[in-house]
Sequence to fold (402 residues):
Amino acid sequence: MSKAVMIVDDSASLRQTVKICLSSAGYEVIEAVDGQDGLNKLDGRPVHLIIADVNMPVMGGFEMVRAIKQMDSYRFTPIMILTTESDETKKREGQMAGAKAWVVKPFRPEHLLAAVSKLIMP
Amino acid sequence: MTTFDDLAGQIEAIGKILPLWKRNLALAREQVESGGSMLAARFSGVVEQLQWESLPLQRSEVEERMLEVFAGLQQELRELLRALQNAHDVRNAELAEIRHLGGQFQELRGMLSGLVPAGMGDDGRKIDEKIMAIDAALLRVDSLAGHFAQLDAKATQQVHRVLDAALQRMEVAMHQELEAARFLREVNAGVRGEISEILVALQHHDRVNQIVGHVEQDLDKLFGKLQEIAQALRAGHDLPGIELECWLNELECSYSTREQRAAHHGRSAAGPEDSDITFF
Fold:
């Protein structure tokens, strides 16, 4: 069974770019347009990794990460922050919220895939 | 003489332009976003077919197996040729033995003709007839063996030629096949590299969106401030102060990219590096 990855980003083209990379490597990709949409879609389905942007309307990435860490079914699901932000203070904030990795856009598809497979347990 | 009302009117007029700028920026943002989306969608099919991870540059297992099978076949055919050559050599050796036997018999015949006197009558004639019969038989055997040896030699040469030609054709076909497969792999890797670059380039619009988004937010703030000033002028109140330092700090805090922070201070910064990844 293929592993499922959720991408949470308000940019449709960014979601599509991530989807292109992950689908070609056999991952199932679930799309969410903001933090709240991401939480709504964590409805019991298996999700092996969550990739989230920081700045999004309705609910931002950090708020969503903190909410996920309170959910029994998903608290151990690794979360990767994918953002244009490279500021160290923000990175620490993401780590404190519970993220496992921080990737600054733009990313190279092969590097993203390597990071994803590192975070998803076999 | 300019009155406060005139000033307020002018400020309000400027304030009416700001929302237009904002709408235009929003429009630009939408168009960049939808353009990026369309481009990404067009590539998705191609990328799926390329299978990002699973095509190594080295020979495939099937190709390696083909090479092994070909090498094995080549070895077996060469052994077959050697076996044929051995059989031919044995026949030549047999022919040499027959010829040697013929020579021995001729010697024996000479010796017998010396021992048997001419007047031995019927017995002498019978011995003579037997000797001639054996001699004729030996000549036939020698002739047949020679003929078969020639046929064998021709057949062996023919098999050599046919098998060598077949092996050469197979070798050429195999190398052409491998070369074509190698070329396809290189083209595939090249296309993957190009698409990887395109996907990286596509992500830059996300940064453009962020930057334009910050300008939009700040235009909102400026619009609000101009309205406040105009209202104060019309009402004859004190003008609201502009906390410039605070405004600039807030603006700087809203930035998400290094280039924005550098531009804020009038400096230029290198663009983003690809794949800056941190694991916690």
Observations:
- Chain B has five helices and one strand.
- Helices of chain B lie at 4-50, 61-115, 122-235, 244-254, 258-264.
- The CA atoms of residues 62 and 68 of chain B lie 10 Å apart.
